[in-house]
Write a structure and sequence with these properties.
This protein is of the alpha+beta class. Helix content is 32%, strand content 25%. The mean pLDDT is 90.
């Protein structure tokens, strides 16, 4: 039975008791010196975002939608050896040669050639820049897998990881060699790359941004949430940050500039400047429609902030907040100005991260309104913002290391 590796990406992995313990993120193979490379095992991602190694000898079944293994799984973080190759991360999109002509790899297939011994036996390739002519050929028919290539491309890998959440794809990119990570980042569209950058450690963020053309880097910053863009710019040299801000569209740069005026560990430095804001004359139906926007995080979508016009930060006079749960209990035609929660006071931008955490904990809130000295709403601090700042600075890197 042939198993095409790219289709395994994201497949749930189950232990002998039938409990899901993670998902397949890649397949590891040995040296490919002309003979079909042997499969050493699979990279499995378990929570919290740790990648471990599952030897192929412990795989007892690969079925539609599941991989089942026997024995115990070693929880040590996966470390790729110099002689090993990640199929999805490093083989897909390679340019190899078939009958002397260049072709591109978009998948490979593995087979169990004898009990518990798997090899890569087939290569799925296409000619040209698009998959207009595709073929599946034997491993031995193509050459060039061991050649270091200047620009490998990334279409196949991106297709394999298309359904992954941004945080999961960020985790996958973090584990790839620097060259491959940059190739993939350049191939992603601005919105997808922006989402992924928000989930990467600061060192990865700045390395990718520096590798992009400066105009493209500014476009990606525009696609990021203003608070995340501000955090990233904080980590860049002042000259580069100033240059990027100057290249951003003025309306996109304005909220980022405001956030950069606050200290990083204060409510102003953590807040998002784009919460859900409506005037008091808006209806409950309108509020719920705004909260259903798919690009809002659950914490941001949990409540609506009510202000006098204008309703873009910094707003007109702040009036109060109403919660998603309260809105669900009201008739659609009810005005949001009549269902404001009077018990929630706003916080000031200069509050420290620990003061904000105490405030959210005291009132059991997912987010808090931030109001300046003029009584205008300038943003909202969410619980995930607070967690990001209370965890160690290298917490994302630690998620990829052994305890």
């Amino acid at each position: 039975m042939k198993i095409f590796v790219a289709r395994l990406a994201g497949t749930p992995v189950f232990d002998p008791a039938g409990d899901q313990i993670g998902r397949i993120r890649d397949v590891v193979v040995g040296p490919h010196d002309g003979n079909p490379p042997s499969v050493h095992g699979m990279v499995v991602e378990i929570q919290p975002r740790r990648r471990v190694f599952l030897p192929i000898t412990r795989v007892r079944g690969i079925e539609a939608g599941s991989v089942i293994f026997t024995g115990r799984l070693n929880m040590r973080r996966f470390e790729q050896r110099d002689t090993e190759t990640l199929v999805i991360g490093q083989m897909l999109d390679l340019t190899v040669r078939l009958d002397g002509e260049p072709v591109t790899v978009y998948d490979v297939a593995m087979e169990e050639t004898r009990p518990s011994f798997w090899q890569i036996t087939k290569v799925a390739i296409y000619r040209g820049k698009r998959r207009r002519e595709t073929r599946i050929v034997d491993w031995g028919e193509v050459t060039g897998f061991g050649v270091l290539q200047k620009d490998q491309g990334a279409a196949g890998l991106i297709a394999a990881f298309e359904s992954m959440r941004a945080a999961d794809l960020a985790s996958a990119l973090h584990d790839l060699p620097d060259k491959r990570r940059i190739e993939i980042a350049r191939a992603l569209d601005d919105d997808r790359l922006a989402d992924i950058l928000e989930e990467l450690p600061p060192n990865d963020q700045t390395a990718i941004l520096r590798a992009l053309e400066v105009e493209r880097a500014a476009d990606v910053l525009e696609a990021m949430d203003p608070d995340d863009a501000a955090d990233l710019l904080h980590d860049l040299p002042d000259e580069q940050a100033t240059q990027l801000l100057a290249l951003m569209e003025p309306q996109e740069a304005a909220p980022v500039r405001r956030l950069l005026t606050y200290a990083d560990d204060t409510a102003g430095g953590m807040m998002t400047s784009e919460p859900v804001i409506l005037p008091p004359t808006a209806t409950v139906a309108e509020a719920l429609a705004h909260m259903r926007q798919k690009d809002l995080t659950p914490a941001v979508a949990a409540q609506v902030y009510v202000t006098r016009p204008p309703t873009e930060t910094p707003t007109g006079a702040y009036l109060g907040v109403t919660h998603f749960q309260r809105l669900l209990r009201e008739p659609p035609s009810t005005l949001v100005g009549s269902v404001i929660d009077p018990s929630i006071d706003p916080i000031r931008p200069e509050l420290t991260v620990h003061e904000v955490a105490s405030y959210l904990a005291n009132y059991n809130l997912l987010a808090a309104p931030v109001v300046n000295e003029l009584g205008r709403l300038v943003g909202a601090v969410t619980v995930d913002d607070v967690l990001d700042h209370m965890l160690p600075e290298d917490w994302r890197e630690r998620a990829h290391r052994d305890d």
